[in-house]
């Protein structure tokens, strides 16, 4: 077998592995998306890959985990000045930025002493 044929076969094998990874990733999105159905119309916290924390009512999402929050705000944590809440209202978060989505227990959240200041 020539070197050129061997190189083509190796590249084809790598391409096949990349396609398999894409299929696996899309299945992960599908699994994640089906898990979010239980949170629709519930108060959730969304933590993004850059560490931002958004709180709001989950109104919708799609297969790539783009998230729509209503009545939302961002909690900005600071060791010197406490927690600032930036009111956002209706807000969309791109799915590729979403790291964690979790339901907020409003009875516990309301008892937290966050020393919140609104911005």
From TrEMBL:
Its main location: nucleus. GO terms for cellular component: precatalytic spliceosome; U4/U6 x U5 tri-snRNP complex; U6 snRNP. Keywords: Acetylation, mRNA processing, mRNA splicing, Nucleus, Ribonucleoprotein, RNA-binding, Spliceosome. LSm subunits form a heteromer with a doughnut shape. Component of the precatalytic spliceosome (spliceosome B complex). Component of the U4/U6-U5 tri-snRNP complex, a building block of the precatalytic spliceosome (spliceosome B complex). The U4/U6-U5 tri-snRNP complex is composed of the U4, U6 and U5 snRNAs and at least PRPF3, PRPF4, PRPF6, PRPF8, PRPF31, SNRNP200, TXNL4A, SNRNP40, SNRPB, SNRPD1, SNRPD2, SNRPD3, SNRPE, SNRPF, SNRPG, DDX23, CD2BP2, PPIH, SNU13, EFTUD2, SART1 and USP39, plus LSM2, LSM3, LSM4, LSM5, LSM6, LSM7 and LSM8. PROSITE patterns: SM. The lineage of its organism: Eukaryota, Metazoa, Ecdysozoa, Arthropoda, Hexapoda. CDD domains: LSm8 (cd01727). One of its GO terms (molecular function) is mRNA binding. InterPro entries: Lsm8, LSM_dom_sf, PTHR15588, Sm, Sm_dom_euk/arc. SUPFAM superfamilies: Sm-like ribonucleoproteins. It is found in: Nucleus. SMART domains: Sm. Residues 31-107 form the Sm domain. It comes from Spodoptera exigua. The gene is LSM8. Belongs to the snRNP Sm proteins family. The keyword DNA-binding does not apply. Plays role in pre-mRNA splicing as component of the U4/U6-U5 tri-snRNP complex that is involved in spliceosome assembly, and as component of the precatalytic spliceosome (spliceosome B complex). The heptameric LSM2-8 complex binds specifically to the 3'-terminal U-tract of U6 snRNA. Plays a role in pre-mRNA splicing as component of the U4/U6-U5 tri-snRNP complex that is involved in spliceosome assembly, and as component of the precatalytic spliceosome (spliceosome B complex). The heptameric LSM2-8 complex binds specifically to the 3'-terminal U-tract of U6 snRNA. This is U6 snRNA-associated Sm-like protein LSm8. One of its GO terms (biological process) is mRNA splicing, via spliceosome.
